Amino acid sequence: MVVDLTHHIAGPYCTKMLADYGAEVIKVERPGLGDPTRRAGPFPGDLPDMEKSGLFLYLNTNKKGITLNLKSTMGKAILKRLVAMADLVVESFSPRVMPSLGLGYEELVKVRPGLIMTSISSFGQTGPYRDYRASEIVAYAMGGSLYLIGEPDRVPLKGPLAQAQYLTGLFACGSTLAAILRRARMGSGDHVDVSIMEAVAAVQESTTTTYAYSGTVWRRAGSRRPEAHPWTILPCRDGYVVVGVSTPVQWEMMTAMLDMPELAEDPRFATAQRRFQHADELDAILSPWFKDRTKQEIYELAQLWRVPFSPVPDLSEVASSPQLAARRYFETISHPVAGVLPYAGAPFRLGVASSRAQQPAPLLGQHNVEIYCKWLGFSKQDLVRLREQGVI
After folding, report:
1. pLDDT exceeding 70 applies to what percent of the chain?
2. Position 211 in a domain
3. Is the pLDDT of residue 354 over 60?
């Protein structure tokens, strides 16, 4: 059983994956307020409702939900009773919060020997930045990703949405599973320390290796790739197409497909490096051909010639992708308040275990009676009193 003390995105995404693949996850929320994502949306019909937030609903499938005030003496005692029954605790407070509540790993492992606790924070549990707060764009910047995105002669750009948070959730889930495996082999628990900044930095491997080996700092190249061209995005009649030519054979096939044999003979474009040096000139030559054709026409022609092109679909086109449909990526789940809605599924499949999310995200405090009465032995009268005292 997993005690989920997470909020926002990174932590709930970690526990969502654990829940979707069979773990019993108990999400603990603040009485009356709940996870902040309940107020983040998007909302069906654009009507705010804390039980209908698309973000919250997606991040909390297959979890049970209770409310508990961790600042109250009784709330702390109840949490410890719950932890005593748990295999895992996952939390995403600032590093100072859990110890200040008397709920740090050193305290919780006393009530549950062998406990694994995963702590997710902006900069980790140690270091000079440990108590700093950070937004998504700060994580992109401090992890090195922001500097690399955008056109070379313009300001850096942040990647879309909250990818740093989801990436951190993936690392947190993977490292938690590794700690479970270690406990199974060695018999001891662990405190897993996950940093959002380091999650972003970890996927910059090629840039950090380049700097370590040669002292070279990668520069922004927009949609281009310094060691290959045409490796870019070009406009066409009804949108954009990705061009990913990286080998001499692909370049030869592309010039034949475009019926532009003169490009293969032009010394400016003789090698991938020279094509990158003259990228503006090459793109200017290619653009009229692309602008005269649709994404689908270019895509189908490129398939015949075995040239790595792809249309750039908008989100409505992604949602209707026959590939995603064939793999049943989108799932339909019925929620008692939000109704029947499609949900994005898992990006992988297991050959034996099911990966299908089935239960909707919990209503705020939906499982209070089940957890407190059936699991912990409270009476319904006790719950009334605890509610009146602001504990649940």
Report:
1. 98
2. no
3. no
Amino acid (one-letter) located at 50 = M
H or E segment and range at residue 182: helix 163-186
Question: Letter for the amino acid at 364?
Answer: L
Number of other residues whose CB lies within 10 A of the CB of residue 175: 18
pLDDT of residue 124: 97
Q: Is 236 helix (H, G, I), strand (E, B) or coil?
A: strand
| Helices 10-20 and 163-186, axial angle in degrees (round to 10) | 50
Contacts of 382-385 spanning 24+ positions with Cβ under 8 A: none
At residue 264's C-alpha, the angle toward residues 263 and 269, to 5°, is 70
Tokens describing residue 379:
């009476």
Same domain membership, residue 156 and residue 59: yes
**Residue 175 DSSP label:** H
Q: Quick one: 171 and 248 in the same domain?
A: no
Task: Verify that 25 and 171 share a domain, yes or no.
Answer: yes
Task: CATH number of the domain at 52, please.
Answer: 3.40.50.10540
